[in-house]
Each structure stands twice: as C-alpha cells, then as structure tokens.
Amino acid sequence: MDMENRDTKQKHYAKVYRADRWAARFITAGGYGIIASIIAIMLFLVYQSLPLGKNASLGDVLSFKVNSPENQTFLTGVDPYQEIFYTLDPKGKLSYFNLDKNDINSQYQLPLSGEEKLLTAQKGNLLSPVFAVGTDSGRIITAEISMKPEWSDAGRTIVPSFEVIEEWQFTPENDSIENHIETIAFVQNEDISRFWAWLDHVGGLHLRILDGEYDDEYLHDLSEYFTDTNITALTISHNGESLVAATRDGDLYWFALDDFEDITLKDKWRASNRPISAIAYLLGDQAIVVGGADGSVETWFPVRTEANWMKFQRIHTFEPHAASIKLITMSSRNRNFLTADDKGNVKLHYSTSGATEFNFQPTDYPISTITFSPKSDAIVAVDAQKNFSLFPLDDPHPETTTRGLFGKVWYEGYQEPEFVWQSTGGSDEFEPKLSLIPLIFGTLKGTLYAMLFSIPIAILAAIYVSQFSPTWLARMVKPTVEIMAALPSVVIGFLAGLYFSPLFEDYLTGFLITPILLLVFFFLAVLAWRSVPEHIRAKTNPGQELLMILPLAIISIYASLQLGPLVESWFFGGNMQQWIFSNLGVTYETRNSLVVGFALGFAVIPIIFTMTEDALTNVPDSLSSASLALGASRWQTVRKVILPAASGGIFAATMLGLGRAVGETMIVLMATGNTPILDLNPFNGFRAMSACIAVEIPEAPVGGSLYRVLFMTALLLFLFTFVLNTLSSIIGERLRKKYARF
C-alpha cells in the first residue's frame, strides 16, 4: 500500500515538475517575445525614418547628340514619363525627339520671316506649356507646347503638338533703327493673364500686359528708371504681381504689377557690388534667386519692417560658382533650383535650408539651357554643342535636414528665423515647415502642467490612505481610484474639450482663486481643530476628519466661484481675459494648457497613486513601530522613516506617470487647440508629438517627407518613454538599495 502511495506521489510530482517546466518555458518565451517586439518596433521606426537623411543623387545619364543645324538651344523640356523631349533653336524650329529611339519624332516651325532669328525665349510658368520668344526684328511670338499622353490597347503614347497663340510687333516711337528683343521675361498666371517684359536694342525696359478676364492690353515703358545703368536680367513672379530687374551695378528694382494701369516701383536696393547676371523667382512667388557675375548665388525675399513696409532682404548665401552665373532654373515641386555658370558647371540648391546639395558638370561644354522634368525627378540639359543629357534625380526629402528638423529656419514671409511646424498649406506652392521643436516643446509643456496637477494630489492621497485612514476607508478609496485608470482617455478628452473648457472660461477667475481659498480655509480649520480640547479630539474615530474636510472643500469651491466676479471687477477691470491680453499680450484660448493639465492629470493620478500606495504599504511594520515606540508622532514617522524607505517606489511611480503623460494622445488631441507654438503661457494651447501623429498621418502621402517625419516623431516619442522608464528603474533600484541598509 505504501509502495502504491509512493508511486502515486512520484507520478504526481513528476507531472507537476513537467507542468512547471513548461510554464517556465512559456513565461520565458513571452518575456523574450515582448523584448523582441519592442526591438522590432524600434527598428521599424528607424527603418522608416532613415531615408530622411539620404542625400540627393543623380542616376545614370542618358546622353546623345541632337540632330540640329544650330548649335544654340533656347528651350528644352521633357514629358512627365521621360519619353519625349523638345528643343527650340534660333531658327524657330521646335523639334520633338524620342528618347527610346534617339530620333526626331516631329518638328514644327515658328512663323519667322526671311532671315529673322530668335534672340531670347522664356517659358510662361513652371508647369505652363506656354512660352514666348523675342526676335531680332522686334516681334514677340507666344506659343504653346503640348506633350499629352494617350492610352490605347497598344499602351501609352506621348503625342506632341504645337500651336502659335499670338504674334505681336513691338514698334518703338521715334526710332528708325530696327528693334531687337534682347531679353524677355514672360509668365501666364492662373487667370490666363499674360505678362511680357523685355529689353530693346538700346537697353530700354518695356512691359506689356494682356488681361485674361477682360482682354484689355496695357503697355508701359519703364526705361525712365534706368537712365544711368544697364539692365542685365529680368524675372516676373509666376502670379504676375511683381517684376524684378537686375543691373550691371548690382542693383535690383522691384515693380508692383497688381494694378495693370499704374506700374509702381516698390523698392530699389543694392544687392551686390558686382554685376548681376541672372535672377529668377522660385515657387511660391516670394523668394528670388540672384546670380552674380562673380559666381555668387543668393536668395532674397520680402520681410516686413518695423514701419510695416515690405523690403527684400538677403536670406541665404549658397556655395558659389567659379564663373559667372548664366542660367537659373527652378523646380515646379519644391524650393529646389539649379544654377549653371559660363563654364558648364551646375549646382543643385534648396532654398529653405540654404544648402547646396551637389554640383556636377553635364558635359565639357557650356550649357545652352537646363531644366527640371515636370515631376522634378530628372534634370534635362542641352549644351552649346547640341549634346542632350537626361539625369535621373533622386532627392525625395530636401527639406528634412538636421537644421530643418531641429534648428531655426527663416521661412518665406517670416521676419526672422523661427521654429515652425506647418506641414500643409492651401496650394502646391506652400513651403513645408517641419521643425520638430514645437512638437517636443508641446509634449513637455503638457506633461509639465499634468504633473503639477497630479503629483501632489496622488502622492498626498496615497500617504493618507496608506498611513492615516482607517482600513474600511482604504478599501473603498483604492479600488475607486484604480477604476479611474479604466476610464477611456477619449472620454476624458471629450469632456475636457467640450464641457470643462467652456466652463473654465466662464469661471476663469473663480477657478484660479480656488487653490488659494482652499489653503486659507484648511489653515483656519487646522487652527480651529487645534483649539478643541484634547479630551474631545481623542474621542474622534479615524476617518471622521473627512466629515469636516469634504464640506470645507465644497464651501471653498463655492466661495471661489461666488467671489470670482468680484475679484475680476476689483483687480482686472471686470474682464480678466481682456486684462491678460492688454497687459501681458497673451490671448486666452478656450482649449489651453490648464485644461489639458487638469484632464491629463486626472488620467495620470491612478498610476502614481496606486504605485505610491503600494510602495508605502510595503515598508516593513518594524520600521514604523520602532519609530512610534521611540516617541515619534505618526506624521514624524511618515516623514522621517516611511517616505525615505519608500522613495524608490514613489520615484518609479512618478516616472511612470510622466511616461504616461508624454505618450498620451486622445486627451491632448481633443482638449488642446493643437497650435504648435513655443510658449509656456498656461492660457495658450500646444501641439504634442502624439497628437500630431494622430492628426497628420491619415493625410500624409506614403513615402513622402511628412510621412517619414511623422515616423521620426514616433521614434522620438518611443525613445522618450523608453528613457523615462529606464531611468525610473535604475534610480528606483538605487534608492531601494540605499534605504534597505537602515
């Protein structure tokens, strides 16, 4: 019988042992799985963020000689699919070439007479198919180039076409010499209004405007502004509102074209001590690129002065060329632009960052014309020996430099360099502003106000519940606070944004004086309680103090709300929000940092309270008993013995609450104005990193700059919480070891 029982026990123990081993394996696998998942998430975020640091590069060049009797080329371009490109020569011949077959697809001829030749040509806009040419007989011909794709069962076919829109003869008054159109600037804006500015054979500047809405024509002679200097370059903004002329003396003249009948000179300034050889407006019609005869490259744009007057200011100076700047070509997708000098060297720059991304030399000869492809994914160049070159361009994220993400940048329209987050705008000409500093600042700001609200309440409540309250009360309070953690954050954010924010605005002064009145009432209550005879206080049961505290708190809050209008009338002229704006220059926003601090603090309190209460409760009773036995009061024991012994756990609780506040999304999304500003003012809103990701990611194009910057933001948020949790573990463990010796 004993043998049977022994065998049964051994089998039972073996079964339990196997079960324990399998349980240990599953638990170990789960632990390693969690670690692997965290590492995988971090690596995925790194993988998505790495392309932001990739430099611009050129692919393998496609090059061949253009079959044309003329060496010079005025215009060139390629279709979006990079199958057909065109060239325009001085004889007015427009030739379309097939890149796959390296032969002429079709040819068209501009309506030139006799020996008439082209002297200058200019495309009408970044993506416009319209261009204008000037001839040696004073004629301006406006035409349209088209390369439209057509689909059939055989596949896609690019169909080139050409149409002359207008021929116009310039006839100067009192001049018997045949006029030349030496240099021309031309644009056609979205209203189909056309603007031509040109230099005649004696250097006179003329302007012609054709109103697209009313079909009215306006002619202006601007030569009177340039009686003592020679004009070297012209450019018109793509919206047709500004004309800038450069001179041999290094001066720039800025004309306003918004009133077609009255052209005014808005400003004149010295941009360089050397002649200016080329200028061009960038996308957005704010910044102009100025290329000098000494090879210098600069960007300028208007900045509002203290006198509320717009004046052009030098913003960026780029890597210079070794020879005079001959051509400036801008991208139609972003603030990229190309500069080419007389020796054939080409550089790619990005205006917002002020960086020169790379330089190259397409051929061994000077460049006749150079441009971007319509998608800005290639560079097309034709040199003086009719060599055509197509360079695939890989530059997906020029705006995401280290300076652009973490430094101050001088954006167009701003008075000085600033940290700005503004990822999208109203048009394709918008300049992306992707500084992460406002998001990091907003995250820390929201966390600061949340911790200021939650830490005192949570820690003091945990001290009371664990050390002073009766057991029955602790059994009620702790589960109630823990239930708060189960409340969805979207509900807290909803209530804070739609209910508490307007309530806080209506009773602003009352809410602000509530903490002061609470302290005053509690201090008076403590004095009153101390005046009660000792034998009466001794008869009070633990927990009955709540019968005094709760009514006192309610009375304090009620008194604060009633006194609020009086205080506002006495000290703030009856309107505290207006007083704040008039005296402090701060605009009160309904959804502000105080509201977020209250709501976010409400979500953080359960974490800090629960962990702090556990840390205080786990302090050995022998320590508190020894302190009490030596004559210390209960509060002295808590302050001198229990709090130091539990400091490691309290610190860990605080850090975990901090990590929760940093990573919170829905509350900061719904209870703030989501305004990415750098201001610690509690009456302003902010934008946190987590809220920015939630708002922006649905609209971010996959693989685009914004898409990858949001992944980088997620990586930073991941690292923040990881560092906070790691510090809490390390410091908490050291504190526990330190006080474990006593």
3D architecture notes:
With 742 residues, the protein is of the alpha+beta class. Helices cover 39% and strands 26% of the residues. Strands 1, 2, 27, 28 and 29 form a five-stranded antiparallel beta sheet that branches. Strands 3-4-5-6 form a four-stranded antiparallel beta sheet, with no helix packed on it. A hairpin with a 4-residue loop joins β5 (93-98) and β6. α5 packs across α10 (593-617). The chain is elongated and about 120 Å long.
Give the CATH superfamily of the largest domain: YVTN repeat-like/Quinoprotein amine dehydrogenase
Structural class: alpha+beta
CATH first level of the largest domain? Mainly Beta
How far the N terminus sits from the C terminus, by CA atoms, comes to 55 Å
CATH architecture of the largest domain: 7 Propeller
Task: Please state roughly what percent of the residues sit in beta strands, choosing from under 5%, 5-15%, 15-25%, 25-35%, 35-45% or over 45%.
Answer: 25-35%
Whole-number tally of structural domains: 2
Give the % helix.
Answer: 25-40%
Number of helices: 16
Query: Per the principal axes of the C-alpha atoms, what is the gross shape?
Result: elongated
CATH topology of the largest domain: Methylamine Dehydrogenase, Chain H
Low-confidence stretches: none
The profile of the biggest β sheet is: 5 strands, antiparallel
Mean pLDDT over the full residue set: 87
- Radius of gyration over C-alpha positions, nearest whole angstrom: 37 Å
| DSSP strand tally | 31
Can you lay out the helices and strands and say which pair or pack?
Blueprint: H1 2-49, E1 57-58, E2 62-65, E3 75-78, E4 84-88, E5 93-98, E6 103-109, E7 118-123, E8 130-135, E9 139-152, E10 155-169, E11 183-188, E12 194-199, E13 205-210, E14 217-221, E15 231-236, E16 242-247, E17 251-256, E18 264-270, E19 276-281, E20 288-292, E21 297-304, E22 310-317, E23 325-330, E24 336-341, E25 346-350, E26 355-360, E27 367-372, E28 378-383, E29 387-394, H2 402-406, E30 421-422, E31 433-434, H3 437-468, H4 471-485, H5 489-506, H6 508-530, H7 534-537, H8 546-571, H9 576-584, H10 593-617, H11 621-629, H12 634-645, H13 647-663, H14 666-671, H15 689-696, H16 705-739
Antiparallel strand pairs: 1-29, 2-29, 3-4, 4-5, 5-6, 7-8, 8-9, 9-10, 11-12, 12-13, 13-14, 15-16, 16-17, 17-18, 19-20, 20-21, 21-22, 23-24, 24-25, 25-26, 27-28, 28-29, 30-31
